[in-house]
Amino acid sequence: MRWFLGFSLSLQFLVGLGLVLSLLLASLAYWINNRATTRLLDASADTAAFYMQNLLQPHVQALGRSEALLPEDFAALDALAEGFRKQGNFLAIKIWSREGKLVFAPETGHGHVLPDDEIFEALEGKVFGRFPDLEDAAHDAERALGVQLYEIYAPLRDLETGTVLAVGEFYQNADVVRGALLTSAKTTWLFVGPLAMIVFTMLFLIVRRGSLTIERQTVELRRQFAERERLLLGNSQLHRSIAEAAQNAANIDERAKRRIGADLHDGACQLLSYLVLEIDRLEHMIRSPGATDEPKAAGIVSEIKKVARKTMEEIRAISGGLVAPQFDAAPTLAALIETLATDHGRRSGAQVTLALAPNAPELTETTRRTLGRIVQEALANAARHAPGSSQKIETYQEDGSFVLRISDSGPAPGHTIEQEREYREGGLGLPGMQFRAQSLGGTLEFRRLEPQGAEVVCRIPLDPDAP
């Protein structure tokens, strides 16, 4: 059933209705033919009996005076039976006496054969017909004929008195009637069959049209459902990415605030505190009675100026990472990287080597800014976590991606990596760079080099549709 239901609606209709209609019509035709044959034979029983009575009654008149037929009557009956048999309508004739004795039967002779119960009903003057049970031993001769027979019982009367002298049993060939009906039915089906096929074809075309519409709508619904599932999945992934990005942005913002606060506290605030102490010393000296130590006061003022300049440099260094005018001035990524490398070398004294791709692809302003921030952060982290090291910046294309690689040679002798754990696990630099790379659809990887040093590799897909 599952295999059948897997077919289209029109094919199910064609197979199902065709099979049911064929079986129904065949069963109906068989039933109608059998019923019509039976009804026709029943209706013609009286006519056949009247016909046979007129032919047989003259040859049974001797039974009114004796229990046997005269030889000449027996010969005449035998000739009639042979003629009917050749004609093919009445294939067998039997005559029974009033005592239930078989007095004429060309196939079996005559003698003491057990009669049917219908004989005694016919002796009362009744005429009736039936389909005999040819499997009965009493019908061996009839069964040998190999056709369907219809059995008719009719009383045979005395021509003068009308008294029933015997019972005539006639076996009519039912196949002749059935064949005639079948021929008539075939002629009828020659007209009904094409008409049925036309109606069936029209119904099939109607169902086929509806089936094709349903199939198209089913395909479209499945496509829309698959598209909806894909959109829902993409939307769910996008929501997760947005949530993760928001969490990362919040974490980065919090760490950035902590870092700026730490830089201000450890740098500018310490210098300002020292500056306030020096100002207090100067004020105390000025207000002291007999304050005449001008060289000492001049030294304090000189120290205040020095500390103030250093404080300004600290604040400029911190704010310089927040507002970078060189990002707007650089027309290309290569120019921006050169500017960042020069500024970093001037501030830290580190040597920065450049190996930039000469045929770098055109990048949007957002991409240049993002990659510039990654370079800036990577150089700052190298100076912080690998003091005294030299750095190298490389750009190239590989497997459909633009690759940015920043590496350092490791801390110089005499320097330690006190903040390595912060850099690898809890610091701001690496998570911030990874977040920036992901915002461009790329990836960022931090690796340790042997025997020392580290590198940051950022890969940005050049195809915007690439995953």
From TrEMBL:
It catalyses: ATP + protein L-histidine = ADP + protein N-phospho-L-histidine. The chain crosses the membrane at residues 188-207. Residues 281-464 form the Histidine kinase domain. Gene3D superfamilies: 1.20.5.1930, Histidine kinase-like ATPase, C-terminal domain (3.30.565.10). Keywords: ATP-binding, Kinase, Membrane, Nucleotide-binding, Phosphoprotein, Transferase, Transmembrane, Transmembrane helix, Two-component regulatory system. Its EC number is 2.7.13.3. InterPro entries: HATPase_C_sf (IPR036890), HATPase_dom (IPR003594), His_kinase_dom (IPR005467), Sensor_HK_TwoCompSys (IPR050482), Sig_transdc_His_kin_sub3_dim/P (IPR011712). It comes from the Bacteria. Pfam families: HATPase_c, HisKA_3. SMART domains: HATPase_c. This is histidine kinase. It comes from Thioclava sediminum.
